[in-house]
Fold Methyltransferase-like protein 7A like protein.
Amino acid sequence: MDANIEFVIYTALTATSSERSFGGQKEEHPFRNSGDWIGGGANLQYYPENSNLTAVDMNPSFITYFEENRQKYPQVNLKRTVITMAEDMHDIDDNSFDVAICTYTLCSVKSVRSALNEIKRVLKPGGKFLCVEHVLYCKSSWNSTLQKFAAPLWKVYFNGCTLTRKSDEEIRKTGFKDVVIEMHHPKDMWLVARPQIIGIATK
Ligand SMILES: C[S@@+](CC[C@H](N)C(=O)[O-])C[C@H]1O[C@@H](n2cnc3c(N)ncnc32)[C@H](O)[C@@H]1O
């Protein structure tokens, strides 16, 4: 990738989650293989030189952890942190980022549709949206019933995280081009959060 790439990431602590979800199988991770897999923490090592990050979260407490992690990766330049709802990023200009990254956040936002529309708005034409999210099982089964049964308690315990989102469908409806969504079921994830999508799409 070229120098001075503008990234917007939705919350900083992405790395540990993605490592966990894919059982640490870095070599098999499609984004990692292409050299542009992203995230905070350990995944910051995969950002190219001169990566300019804007980190977005509604909760300011992430900044301390993110800053600690970032010190280890001098190729990453944190340009800005924006404390806002992903559904309304009015402080961020249209068409301003090359890459937008979202891990385990669409499960928690109030409106997936609005958050995705905002992500699309802030991406430059041709910009890439990358995500890793847990979703509802794609077919009705005992597992999906279990997800629906566990969802209310899970939501309370995990700060609004929703087990039953169909974020893959929402991404397809947002009007991105070249949408590629892979479904994975990593064995080391709890059964109710096991269906995971890895998505890439272009504005
Ligand atoms: C499950 S955590 C994921 C954190 C991190 N991205 C990761 O992959 O480990 C969900 C994050 O989404 C943030 N969040 C929840 N709702 C949000 C919203 N509407 N807008 C922006 N951030 C939100 C929370 O503050 C929290 O940091």
In short: The CA atoms of residues 78 and 182 lie 30 Å apart.
